[in-house]
Specification:
Length: 79
Amino acid sequence: MGLYYFDIQIGDAPRSVDEEGERFPDLDAARVEAGLALCNLGRDLMQSGQTVSQITIWVRDELGEVMLAKLEFRISRLN
């Protein structure tokens, strides 16, 4: 079980650094968690009325960054 940290940046706000981390069996399990976190954060932001267009998660282990997960969205009226 590896310890992975999930640093999050929403829009242009400063990156929030994860100081605690979470244990996962492998990097693939951490990848799934990062994807789910992006979906949940995007949903929560939309429900709160925010118009953020980008959420980024940097996944780190004890050696440094190992993965980048990013959600970008745009909602535009067509009429």
